[in-house]
Structure formats: C-alpha cells, structure tokens
User: Which sequence fits this backbone?
C-alpha cells in the first residue's frame, strides 16, 4: 500500500493544495508558507485512525477554529488522500469536518476508484443519512453506529471483511518526528512504545525496547550516531532510576566518565533520536521528519540525510527543510523536491521544478548544485493562488 496524493482544502494555511507522493518528497520554502501544515495534515489523519476519533487530533490543534484556513470564514475542512495497493487497485479516502453550534461533525467516505468487483463506494459516514461499510464476506452493506466525531475508517476496519482494512493498517504504521532537545534531555516513563513519539519524549523508553528486542539494532544505532557526528560513542546505556523512569548515558572516546542525559549535546541527542525513529523503519510505511538539519553541524547533514534516503527503500519519506545542504543530497533525484510558497490571502502554493531531466539539464547548464540553485532563486516561490 502506498500514498499517491494528498489534497487539502482550507486546512490551516492550505486553502486548496495538491501534493503528489513518490518514494521521497522534500518540501522547502520560506518560513510561514505552510510546509509543516502539509506534514501535519497527514499526522492529523493518522491520529484519528489510531484513536478512532477526530476529537483528539482536533483538540491537540486548539479546536476546530484553529484547524481552518483564516483567509475567509470557513465552516468546513476537507482532506483527501489517494492510495494504491499492490494489486493495482486505488482508493480515495475523503474526510471533511463541518462546524456545528456545539463542535464539529465528520463526513467520510472511501471510494474504490479502479475497476473491480467491488462497488465504487465501500465506506460511507453521512451525518444526515447512512453510516455503513461494504462487506466482502457477505456482499452487502453493514451498518455503523458512530458518534459525530468518530473515524469511520477505524470503526469499519475492526471487521476483517472490510475491503479497505489494508488502508487502515497502512496508516497506523506512519511515523512523524521532530525531536526536540528540550524534551530529549529528560528520562522517560518506563512504558514499551512501538515507536518514537513526535517530540521524542519517550526516547529512552524506545531505546530500552530496541535493546531488549534487537541488540544488533541497538548496536547499529550507536555506530550510526558516531558515523554521522564524528563523535565515537564507546557506550550507549539505558538504566532504571529510583523513581521508576529510565535514563540514558553515553560514553565518548577520550572521556573518563560517562555523560548523563541532561549533559549530552543537543545535536547528538537529535541525531540519536532520528536514528532511533528510523530503527525498524521497514515497518513504518511512511516516515515524516521536520527539518532534519536542526541542531546538526553542517558537516553531518549529508550523512544524516543519506540515512533517510536509505530508509526510502522500505518507506515513503517526507522531509521539510530550509537547508540547501539537505537539497544537495537530492541531486540525483531532483524530482522529489517541491518549493512551498504562499502569501496572505492566497494560502500555500506548490511549485515543482519539472521532470528530473529538466532539472538536471538546468543544473548542468548553471553549474550549480541543487542547493545552490535554490539559493539563487532558480526555483521561483509563487505568491499567487
């Protein structure tokens, strides 16, 4: 299962934007144009699928009013995603949130858009009418009983006969990260997380899981951090604290004593967190990271991005960035790059540089790297809708 396309209408700064997806998507552009909103929209959908309700991800973003495009009075937000399956089938998952006097309600459908023996609509959540899913087992509609803010895809997927269950399982694997050194410096609660959370608050607990379940992966993480940073970590330890939490310490070449978690450098902690998040990335079918270059020395950026590119062999990768150094790593796949622009009153815009051949020709003629081309404004940022 793969994500093929994202189409947003009135989601935060995205008034009307379509983003195609390949193995790798790189979003670059000025501050405030909506790069993070594009990533966040997928995180929003994944949050609803995992929790079974849109109420939690809406609340985390400050309520319905803070979810909507601010350029006009908006009472509806729409998110459309298109998926392709290994058998050649394709699906559209359509989600719209509509404001009500009390809160909001959800309208949702899943459409089979490739010819098959299935009906074109296999899931419907209409607040004013039917709520049902189509069963491949019985060949008939099965009714759904839903709260106004519930996720119908999540509810229908509890049944093995639901033909869209693979989409639910696919979305549940998505991982989103923007590790913050402000929280990476603190020990973790001793739970058993399946992946690193968005800010990295469970870094040490996730490391403990990897150490217990796959010692070779734990060792690879230690080596990867050293390879990227140039700081050889002779030890990478997780230990229990008296208060029940788990804490991290590292040994560095040339140091007599280990460095405890609060004293580890911001850059090493962030690279460590990204390496932890990518561990087991073969199970995360979409992996999205905000600005991987943050807190990272310029000489380490290429090695870090190469780690992400390697992960794209198993996962679709989405990266937001401000860095021409990151862009330079995509010189042989310039078609992955989208320039995000926008202005007040118009919302987010996307510009693609053209085909890989077009971009490669332009780079060869200019003598620029891809990053140099961006700095020279070879990609024009659109300020019109």
Assistant:
């Amino acid at each position: 299962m793969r994500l093929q396309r994202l189409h947003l209408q009135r989601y935060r700064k995205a008034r009307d934007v379509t983003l195609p997806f390949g193995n790798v998507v790189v979003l670059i552009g000025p501050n405030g144009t909506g790069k993070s909103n594009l990533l966040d929209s997928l995180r929003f959908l994944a949050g609803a699928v995992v929790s079974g309700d849109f109420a939690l991800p809406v609340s985390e973003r400050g309520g319905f009013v803070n979810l909507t495009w601010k350029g006009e009075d908006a009472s509806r937000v729409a998110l459309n995603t298109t998926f392709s399956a290994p058998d050649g089938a394709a699906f559209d998952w359509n989600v719209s949130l509509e404001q009500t006097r009390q809160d909001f309600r959800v309208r949702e459908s899943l459409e089979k858009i490739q010819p098959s023996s299935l009906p074109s609509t296999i899931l419907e959540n209409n607040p004013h009418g039917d709520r049902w899913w189509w069963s491949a087992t019985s060949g008939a509609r099965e009714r759904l009983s839903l709260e106004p803010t519930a996720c119908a895809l999540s509810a229908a997927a509890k049944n093995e006969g639901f033909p869209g269950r693979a989409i639910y399982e696919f979305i549940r694997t998505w991982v989103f990260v923007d590790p913050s050194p402000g929280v990476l410096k603190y020990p973790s609660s001793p739970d058993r997380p399946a992946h690193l959370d968005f800010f990295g608050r469970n870094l040490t607990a996730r490391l403990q899981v990897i150490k217990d379940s796959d010692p070779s992966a734990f060792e690879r993480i230690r080596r990867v951090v050293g390879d990227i940073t140039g700081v050889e970590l002779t030890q990478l330890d997780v230990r229990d604290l008296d208060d029940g939490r788990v804490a991290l310490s590292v040994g560095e070449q040339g140091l007599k004593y280990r460095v405890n978690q609060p004293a580890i450098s911001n850059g090493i902690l962030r690279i460590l967190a990204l390496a932890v998040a990518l561990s087991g990335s073969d199970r995360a079918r979409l992996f999205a990271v905000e600005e991987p270059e943050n807190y990272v020395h310029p000489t380490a950026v290429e090695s870090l991005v190469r780690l992400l590119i390697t992960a794209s062999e198993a996962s679709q990768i989405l990266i937001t960035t401000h860095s021409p150094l990151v862009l330079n790593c995509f010189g042989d796949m310039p078609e992955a790059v989208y320039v995000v622009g926008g202005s007040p009153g118009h919302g987010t815009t996307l510009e693609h540089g053209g085909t890989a051949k077009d971009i490669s020709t332009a780079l060869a003629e200019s003598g620029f790297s891809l990053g140099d081309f961006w700095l020279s404004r070879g990609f024009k940022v659109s300020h019109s809708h």
